[in-house]
Design brief:
It contains 9 helices and 5 strands. It is of the alpha+beta class. It has 2 domains: 4-98, DNA polymerase, domain 1; 104-216, 3-Layer(aba) Sandwich (Cytidine Deaminase, domain 2). The protein has a 5-stranded mixed beta sheet with strand order 2-1-3-4-5, sandwiched between helices. Helix 9 links the parallel strand 3 (167-173) and strand 4 (202-210). Helix 2 packs across helix 3 (44-54). The longest helix has 24 residues, at 77-100.
């Protein structure tokens, strides 16, 4: 890997970005731009390439604790925090974009975002929607027992009322991997839909998620 000083000016990450936009940079060059400057014997670009190699790519790097990143040669804790902050901003941007696009949200999109894997607890996600069908709040509610799915009705209703919900979507994980709802799941869901409907708040869908796929109450015409 050539040192930045030995590169032609138009090939250096900062100059290249100024001339052609940040979209012209590859991943290592973008990372080098965030790192800013190197240390004696190691350019920012070299440090960036080493980081990507040590963490086996951008995805694993984005999930690494900043203290792990800071252990890489040529990086201080401050630089590692800056890198972690960029990844966190990206995650929050993705979440914000997801919330803003929720008017046409499908069960498959909910599954893709919230399925937690086959070893996850049977937790509950509450998506609160306004009268335009836009998600205005996202809440992770306490999971039920390991043997049965429980809907924390009081907490759920409070969340709906204080956020002036017009409708809402529920999603929960089946640790068994089988997304088919039990008779008890169906009974509790329909009871909840009736109770919140009396408050003028509609349950749009309840998506049960498992490693084998998902089950949508709406798509199955139960709601």
């Amino acid at each position: 890997m050539a040192k930045i000083q030995s590169l032609l000016p138009e090939s250096r990450p900062r100059e290249k970005a100024c001339a052609h936009g940040v979209e012209s940079l590859d991943i290592a060059e973008l990372l080098a731009l965030i790192i800013g400057s190197g240390v004696e014997g190691h350019s920012a670009l070299e440090i960036a390439h080493r980081l990507l190699g040590d963490f086996h790519g951008l995805v694993h790097l984005s999930e690494a604790p900043y203290l792990s990143i800071a252990q890489s040669p040529g990086l201080s804790k401050v630089k590692a925090l800056q890198i972690s902050a960029v990844f966190e901003l990206s995650k929050r941007l993705e979440k914000a974009a997801f919330i803003e696009s929720a008017n046409s949200l499908s069960a498959s999109e909910v599954y893709a975002r919230y399925h937690q894997g086959e070893h996850a607890e049977e937790g509950l996600v509450l998506l609160i929607l306004n009268h335009k069908g836009e998600i205005i709040k996202e809440r992770q509610l306490e999971p039920g027992s390991s043997s049965a799915f429980e809907i924390p009705k009081k907490k759920l209703v409070v969340e709906l009322l204080v956020n002036y919900a017009s409708s809402y979507i529920l999603a929960h994980n089946h640790p068994s991997g089988n997304p088919l709802p039990s008779e008890e799941d169906i009974k509790k869901t329909l009871q909840l839909a009736t109770e919140t409907k009396s408050l003028g708040i509609t349950l749009r869908d309840h998506i049960v998620m498992g490693s084998q796929g998902y089950y949508s109450f709406k798509e199955s015409h139960l709601l």
